[in-house]
Amino acid sequence: MSHDKLLHQVFQINPEPMALSRLDDGRYIDVNLAFLRVFGYSREEVIGRTAQELGIWENAERDREPIVNQVQCQGYALDCEAAFITKGGTALQFLLGASRIDGEGGPLLLIVGRNVTELRSAEQALRDSEARYRSLTENLPLGIMIAQDDVIRYANPASLALLGYELNELIGQSFLPLIEPADRALLLEQYRSRMAGDDASTCYDLRVVRKDGVLRYGRIHSSMVTWEGRRAGLVAFSDITTQKLTEQKITEMALHDVITGLPNRMLLADRAHQAIVAATRRHSGIALLYLDLDGFKAVNDNWGHEAGDEVLRQVGERLCGNIRETDTAARVGGDEFVVLVQEVADYGRVQPIAEKLMSAINRPIRSAAGEHQIGVSIGIAMFPNDGIDLDCLMRSADKAMYRAKHSGRNSVRCYRGGAS
């Protein structure tokens, strides 16, 4: 087989459309079978005519002329994209390569095309999908962030507004500074789980730090996504600070006395349980002091409840100011208070604490109505000798407190197994 015949056979069997035309006027000299199949023409309809006459080029001036110019300047053209129309009217997108060939009748133009219509359609669909996704995320009131390689790859406008940052201040930066240090371990655990292959969505709350340093509470929904072909962690979050503060306020009101702000009986029970468990483990003691104010009824009767409330508030402040942080002062009734003292071995070590509290309460208390002088009767019970739970300790301390009242008030008595 001659060289020319071999080249012609390769030309004809190439699966990509190929066309040979005159460089000067564009008239087709030859086209291969793939060309005829793709464009729907017969050889007789094509040979001797131009692509413009057939209407194959969607826009010859835009697409063909730049190719011809490149070929005339450098002898070839590569990766030129062009739009074509088949005989049946179907629009196709091709990636073209062209080369100049010197023929007997003058220079020829060889064009080889690769049909990229489906590829471009898929790419456009992906761009449309990404555009819809971006439009959705960028208009959501919910903060959206994507993290990969331990840094932020994407942040929507809502997340920037919630955190007080500009986009260029976050992209490529670590996400950890946005999280309250005490909560970072939780976020890292979730993120590492995503990167390790866990696809389950999770929801949790943590504290985030705005650019201005203000702490906000965020409710986090995290999941796995693919970002630029690799795994990434997606976080959607909302600001629940108002909700959290409301919950905290409700909890505080449920566990604290309204007037003094001290723990109430419910919170005292929890603190006492924890203290008893710790004391049992350490083989140490606990003291419970039961305090009843002397002369408080006269304040209410003579000066009114506003003055009485102010007295209660100041008594609470004085109690807190004269005990350790590990101890607990609580209001358990109208003018009754309890102080739970941890890690004390015997009455001898508790008595000075009780006398210090008595001295603090005995100082005059001023309200808007005037100056008030009150006293306090204190009963002391010890764990475990006088009771092994809060109820038993309170009953024992209450009995000791009544002995103090009956002995002349403004004094301290210890239960001591029932004896004063």
For this entry, give a set of tags.
single chain; 420 residues; alpha+beta; Beta-Lactamase; Alpha-Beta Plaits; 3 domains; five-stranded antiparallel β-sheet; 15 helices
How is this structure best described in words?
It is a single chain. The chain is α+β, with helices and mostly antiparallel strands and 420 residues long. It folds into 3 domains: 3-115, PAS domain (Beta-Lactamase); 133-243, Beta-Lactamase; 256-418, Reverse transcriptase/Diguanylate cyclase domain (Alpha-Beta Plaits), CATH 3.30.70.270. Helix content is 42%, strand content 29%. It contains 15 helices and 17 strands. Strands 2-1-5-4-3 form a 5-stranded antiparallel β-sheet. The protein has a 5-stranded antiparallel β-sheet with strand order 7-6-10-9-8, sandwiched between helices. Helix 15 links the parallel strand 16 (375-383) and strand 17 (412-414). Helix 12 (296-303) packs antiparallel against helix 13 (305-320). The radius of gyration is 44 Å and the shape is rod-shaped. It starts with a helix and ends in a 6-residue tail after the last strand. 29% of the residues are buried. The mean pLDDT is 88.
